[in-house]
Every structure is written in structure tokens, then in C-alpha cells.
From TrEMBL:
Name this polypeptide is given: Uridylate kinase
Species: Marilutibacter penaei
Any single GO BP term: UDP biosynthetic process
One GO MF term attached to the UniProt entry: ATP binding
One Pfam family, short name: AA_kinase
Gene, per the UniProt record: pyrH
Principal subcellular localization: cytoplasm
Keyword Transferase: yes
Compartment(s) of residence: Cytoplasm
Binding site for ATP: 12-15, 55, 59, 162, 168, 171
């Protein structure tokens, strides 16, 4: 098996990724497949942390747009990420993995509080760590939470799993002439307003020198191939 190019990574999944063919909630087949990808990567020697959004259940900004007070909506969205994290923990442990959910909100009866040094120790001990509840603050997305946690644990790479095979200059589903970028700098992403993650997340990665790879998680085995250094999707870093 090829050597890993990255040893410690954080994988950001959207809540919608868990829905599979369902209209809402969690598709057991889909979360099982994603869990197998993570286990495969860990068995190859990677230390893997995850952040999962909550859009399959609640999205704070969407609730606020419907008239709900923004802070309340964001707190509901954070709790949705805890639900998804617990579901992923269950799926990973069914496959023999050892997983810990660490929440930025205090919910001691169902998961651990987030403590940076403890999270790093879990990874060093061969446990999979799922960070829930974003940053614990309203007005910040789970993309920003993923970037923050990746920096805090000293990740070699931040992975953003999407339904498209990288970053395009325009929506490839609407424009047949859309061009995919193989590489971008963080400044280029921000200047061109390529909205694959929020600007705060990109700025955090840029300022910390953390590379980001955006790729399509729909292909079986793709996570391990990315960790082995294959040029899949779009790499965003400080240099083009």
C-alpha cells in the first residue's frame, strides 16, 4: 500500500451528505459507507478527526431567514450537529472503530466537552474524534468550526467533502463551460468569491498555512486515495 502523504487530517462533511437518497435526516446506508471510508483511512495509518454539519436537520441561517431569532436558530443548528456526530460515532463503532464525540457546548450526558489537549491525546491513542456544535458560538458556520479545530489539533490537511469534484469558476450543474481549478491560493478564492466555504474559514486556513483539499466524496475509496497524495479535486493553499 502506498505511503500516506498526510498523517493527521480533519474531514468536514455536510449534514446533507448523511441524507443519501432520503429527503431529511440520516440514511443508514450512506452513513455506513462514509464510516467505512474513515475506518479504511485510519487502518492505513491516518489520524482522522471529523466535523459534520447539521443541514440535514436544522440550519441556523435558514431558520433565521424564516423569522427565528438568529442566536436561537444557530443554537438549534449546533444541537443538530451533535445528533449527526452521535450517529457517526455509532456507525464507526459498529465497524470496530473507537470514536469520541467532543462538543463545544456542554452536554456531558451524551458526549465529552471539547478540550484541545484531550482531543489530540485521543488521536494519538488511535481514536477517531468527532467535533460537534461548531465553535460553540452563534454566527459561525461549521466550516469555520472545522478550520478552527483542524488548526488546533495540528492537522496536516483540512478535507472538505462535497458533491462536486472540486472548485469551479461557476456552477458546473448550470454551466456546461464551467472550468475546474486544480490549485488555488486562499487569496484567489476570497478575491473571486468562490463560495465553497465561508470567508472566515478560508482566512483561518490562510493565516495558519493549513492546506485545504475540496473533493467529491461520492467515489468509493476516494478518502484513502487523497491521503496517499493523489491529485484529486482542488487543492487550496498559500501558493498556486
Amino acid at each position: 500500500m502506498p505511503e500516506l502523504a498526510y498523517r493527521r487530517v480533519l474531514l468536514k462533511l455536510s449534514g446533507e451528505a448523511l441524507m443519501g437518497d432520503e429527503d431529511y435526516g440520516i440514511d443508514p446506508k450512506m452513513i455506513g459507507r462514509l464510516a467505512r471510508e474513515v475506518i479504511e483511512a485510519q487502518q492505513a495509518g491516518a489520524e482522522v478527526a471529523l466535523v459534520i454539519g447539521g443541514g440535514n436537520i436544522f440550519r441556523g441561517a435558514g431558520l433565521a431567514a424564516s423569522g427565528m431569532e438568529r442566536v436561537t436558530g444557530d443554537h438549534m443548528g449546533m444541537l443538530a450537529t451533535v445528533i449527526n456526530a452521535l450517529a457517526m460515532q455509532d456507525a464507526l463503532e459498529k465497524l470496530g472503530g473507537k470514536a469520541r464525540v467532543m462538543s463545544a457546548l456542554k452536554i456531558n450526558d451524551v458526549c465529552e466537552d471539547y478540550i484541545r489537549r484531550r482531543a489530540i491525546r485521543h488521536l494519538e491513542k488511535g481514536r477517531l474524534v468527532i467535533f460537534a456544535a461548531g465553535t460553540g458560538n452563534p454566527f459561525f458556520t461549521t466550516d469555520s468550526g472545522a478550520a478552527l479545530r483542524a488548526i488546533e489539533i495540528g492537522a496536516d490537511l483540512l478535507l472538505k467533502a462535497t458533491k462536486v469534484d472540486g472548485v469551479y469558476d461557476k456552477d458546473p450543474k448550470k454551466h456546461a463551460d464551467a472550468v475546474r481549478y486544480d490549485t488555488l491560493t486562499y487569496d484567489e478564492v476570497i478575491q473571486r468569491n468562490l463560495q465553497v466555504m465561508d470567508t472566515a474559514a478560508f482566512a483561518l486556513c490562510r493565516d495558519s498555512g493549513l492546506p485545504l483539499r475540496i473533493f467529491d466524496m461520492g467515489q468509493p475509496g476516494v478518502l484513502l486515495r487523497v491521503l496517499q497524495g493523489e491529485d484529486i479535486g482542488t487543492l487550496v493553499s498559500g501558493r498556486s
